[in-house]
Backbone:
């Protein structure tokens, strides 16, 4: 897989050439999302985020609440919250989606970029049968009814819904959580997207269902050569499906690189702390020394490195100098002044 | 049941043949289908029993019966050999002895009450546990015990972070000096870095206050870290019980094996693991 070497430097000042057709399908450049805060202020919930989602690759976007991971996905989808302002570039096959008009965004959404949400019960229409919702895009393509029906059955079957002819007549509430998520996946695949965004797709599911849904997503991603952006707080989930990871904290990227390398040998103290706090299932892990304090929020992001008040390696420079995301080892990008030290430890 | 349970010695909590049915005509559920169908378990003093299972397995129903929030259809629950009594009719003493920490501290604390009044309320309900001397000082000591600054006392629960809220929930539970703490997914809704803090706090408090815990969680990794013994529930019955290390490394019941097979570890040696970028989902 050509995952390595596609990362872009954060805050790259060089005017970047429009990626050629063989470049990554999605390139996020210096994305800033601002929301209205109290007393007329603007809160930067996403602050200068840059990374690529290469073709046929799953990128895991890891972060805690307030990290901006969901907001980044919503910006890519073109559904940011009301009154949000977006700057930077979202290059979709070289075309800047931030500059694109609403009509173009609507075409891209669903047909080129599709999203799987955490809570299918909230994302699906409760008043419409599953088949009608999955068939919306084929219907809009003015396919004959029998053809739409055939396509819906095929999509549901592909998403692992048993007895699709029967289930397509069910309403969302009549299905189990796992089946609803499968219906959601069928709906997402209906437009034959090139990029699948999945925001905590298995967080609400039981473990046995979770592992089946993750396997399904990995199979579809591999079979269709999809690019996938998997947003999750769960390092275990990400480590099982993603080839690359991006770790976010308080609206900024901490580090990114090949998933296995980042999770085995982090280049940022925050990633290291996250990895340490995941208990093993099959062996007894001693309780980790937890990080002090609560995750920083974009609304009161500390000066300098946002992580510095919780960082075990904090030094004077971290308190006032925002670290750039830089390549600290081959293919490894980190926004830590002491990244080399973290890598070496 | 195991020999040690038959001995009946040294038990704090003893649940015998617990049965609960939810009536009504719930969607997709048979009328009166049992949620808990004859569960027996026990917790020794200062012991932590992990209760694991998927949603619908009945683990939360067991917890709610133990905490006195739900009336079982049949079965007995005793603490130190004395029946705990029906939900809603427990003596103040037995209500005090079993305290519960819920999954979502934001919905289990009144967002408009200050932390000080939340604690004052439980001291009012259980006057025997109220401090004799300076209550403010006692409150600050209690908060410090939870790793909270004294100024949190005057803040409203709704203004606290998720981790702070859960610390206040634990403070509220421990303010009345319980014998048994029932934690129902108490760390599941928290951020990973905060989850580690709360687990450490629970382990410290357990040792310092000599608490027994009934620790309900769907996360086998967390249970492996904190529980001495583990009980596995499936469809209302207890399918396996034993020492945590035994159950989670050498499960005897097929369902426990299914659960373990599905549980993800961060860095498994899975098929496809190697130098390539190919990932296998197990």
Residues:
């Amino acid at each position: 897989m050509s995952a390595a070497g596609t990362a872009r430097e954060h805050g790259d000042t060089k005017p970047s050439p429009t990626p050629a057709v063989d470049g990554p399908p999605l390139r996020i450049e210096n994305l800033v999302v601002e929301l209205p805060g109290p007393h007329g202020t603007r809160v930067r919930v996403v602050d200068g985020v840059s990374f690529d989602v290469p073709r046929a690759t799953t990128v895991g976007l890891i972060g805690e609440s307030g990290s901006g991971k969901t907001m980044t996905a919503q910006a890519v989808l073109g559904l940011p919250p009301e009154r949000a302002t977006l700057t930077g570039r979202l290059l979709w096959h070289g075309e800047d989606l931030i500059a694109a008009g609403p009509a173009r965004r609507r075409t891209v959404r669903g047909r080129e970029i599709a999203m799987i949400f955490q809570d299918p019960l909230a994302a699906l229409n409760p008043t419409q049968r599953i088949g009608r919702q999955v068939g919306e895009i084929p219907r809009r393509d003015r396919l004959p009814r029998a053809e739409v029906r055939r396509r819906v059955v095929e999509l549901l079957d592909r998403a692992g819904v048993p007895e699709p002819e029967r289930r397509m007549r069910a309403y969302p509430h009549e299905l189990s959580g796992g089946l609803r998520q499968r219906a959601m996946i069928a709906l997402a695949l209906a437009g034959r997207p090139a990029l699948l965004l999945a925001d905590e797709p298995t967080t609400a599911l039981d473990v046995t269902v979770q592992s089946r849904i993750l396997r399904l997503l990995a199979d579809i991603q591999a079979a269709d050569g999809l690019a996938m952006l998997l947003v999750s707080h769960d390092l275990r989930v990400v480590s099982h499906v993603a080839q690359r990871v991006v770790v976010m904290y308080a609206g900024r990227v901490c580090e990114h690189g090949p998933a296995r390398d980042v999770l085995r040998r982090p280049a940022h103290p925050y990633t290291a702390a996250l990895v340490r706090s995941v208990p093993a299932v099959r062996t007894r892990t001693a309780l980790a020394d937890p990080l002090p304090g609560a995750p920083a929020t974009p609304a009161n992001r500390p000066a300098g490195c946002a992580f510095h008040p919780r960082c075990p390696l904090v030094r004077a420079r971290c308190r006032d100098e925002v670290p750039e995301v830089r390549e600290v080892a081959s293919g490894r990008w980190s926004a830590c002044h002491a990244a080399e030290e973290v890598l070496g430890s | 049941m195991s020999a040690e349970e038959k001995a009946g010695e040294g038990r704090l909590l003893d649940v015998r043949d617990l049965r609960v049915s939810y009536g009504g005509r719930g969607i997709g559920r048979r009328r009166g289908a049992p949620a808990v169908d004859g569960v027996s378990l026990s917790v020794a003093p200062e012991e932590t029993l992990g209760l694991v299972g998927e949603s619908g397995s009945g683990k939360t129903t067991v917890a709610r019966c133990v905490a006195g929030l739900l009336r079982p259809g049949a079965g007995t629950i005793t603490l130190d050999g004395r029946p705990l009594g029906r939900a809603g009719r427990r003596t103040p003493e037995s209500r005090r002895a079993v305290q519960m920490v819920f999954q979502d501290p934001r919905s289990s604390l009144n967002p408009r009450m200050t932390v000080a009044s939340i604690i004052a309320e439980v001291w009012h309900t259980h006057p025997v546990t109220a401090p004799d001397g300076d209550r403010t000082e006692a409150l600050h000591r209690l908060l410090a015990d939870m790793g909270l600054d004294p100024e949190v006392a005057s803040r409203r629960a709704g203004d606290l972070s998720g981790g702070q809220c859960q610390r206040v929930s634990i403070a509220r539970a421990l303010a009345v000096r319980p014998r048994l703490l029932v934690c129902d997914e108490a760390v599941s809704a928290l951020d990973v870095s905060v989850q580690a803090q709360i687990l450490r706090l629970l382990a410290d408090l357990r040792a310092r206050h000599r608490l027994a815990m009934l620790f309900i969680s769907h996360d086998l990794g967390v249970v492996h870290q904190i529980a001495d013994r583990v009980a596995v529930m499936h469809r209302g019955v207890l399918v396996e019980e034993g020492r945590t290390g035994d159950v989670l490394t050498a499960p005897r019941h097929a369902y426990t094996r299914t659960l373990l097979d599905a549980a993800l570890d961060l860095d498994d040696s899975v098929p496809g693991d190697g130098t390539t970028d190919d990932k296998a989902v197990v």
About this structure: The two ends of chain A are 28 Å apart (CA to CA). The mean pLDDT of chain A is 91. Residues 129-185 of chain A form one domain.
